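Fill in residues.
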């Protein structure tokens, strides 16, 4: 059922869905080299019709009142988020409690609350930072699984994520893992409940998010040394 929803791009009639991307990096990221700032990303996202964003820089919360206001004036709900490393594996945290450290998987249980989300990003990609077997081992700690935009007609490491989503009833969340502005919009989520507060969006996303994505990337791809998802399509 989930695969069909992804492939046919159809949406049931009802409230206008919220276009969201919950995995984005900016120049404020302490670990990745990114050319654009958080405000530049928000401006670009507004041009492309996004209504919900989460900037998820590595080990750093890129969120404050000024940035939230900047997004709100452009019609965007900005949700606090970050991409943390737990046992050297990446995990997305949306609306985490301030000042809380996440040193192991058991610490994620503190995020089992209605106004937060724990997402497994690119879980089965051939990257040493991907969760792989840790996802099933700690599945009860996760609220959703990411469908990442990096794939081609012949190779799509999201297929196992789809299988886990279907067999365990976890929603797929389409994200771009943007490191270049050209990647924004390649994959995103549509939340069918029109909830504009960060807590309500996180709560309803557990049940009502579905992925949407562009055709597979078949162009020439340049992989940057030491990374897997930073690339440019020529």
């Amino acid at each position: 059922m989930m695969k069909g929803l992804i492939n046919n791009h159809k949406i049931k009639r009802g409230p206008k869905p919220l276009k969201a991307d919950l995995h984005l990096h900016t120049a404020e990221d302490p670990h990745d080299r990114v050319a654009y700032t958080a405000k530049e990303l928000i401006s670009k996202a507004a041009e492309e019709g996004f209504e919900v964003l989460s900037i998820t820089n590595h080990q750093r919360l890129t969120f404050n009142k000024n940035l939230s206001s900047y997004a709100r004036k452009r019609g965007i709900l900005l949700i606090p988020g970050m991409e943390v490393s737990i046992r050297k594996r990446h995990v997305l945290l949306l609306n985490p409690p301030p000042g809380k450290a996440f040193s192991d998987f058991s610490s994620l249980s503190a995020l089992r609350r209605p106004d937060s989300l724990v997402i497994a990003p690119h879980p089965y990609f051939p990257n040493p930072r991907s969760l792989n077997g840790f996802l099933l081992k700690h599945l009860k700690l996760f609220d959703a699984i990411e469908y990442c935009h990096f794939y081609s007609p012949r190779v799509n490491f999201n297929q196992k994520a789809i299988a886990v989503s279907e067999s365990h009833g976890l929603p797929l969340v389409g994200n771009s893992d943007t490191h270049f502005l050209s990647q924004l919009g390649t994959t995103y989520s549509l939340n069918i409940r029109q909830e504009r507060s960060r807590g309500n969006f996180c709560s309803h996303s557990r049940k009502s998010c579905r992925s949407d994505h562009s055709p597979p990337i078949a162009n020439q791809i340049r992989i940057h040394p030491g990374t897997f998802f930073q690339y440019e399509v020529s």
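The domain at 2-233 is CATH 3.20.20.140 (TIM Barrel).
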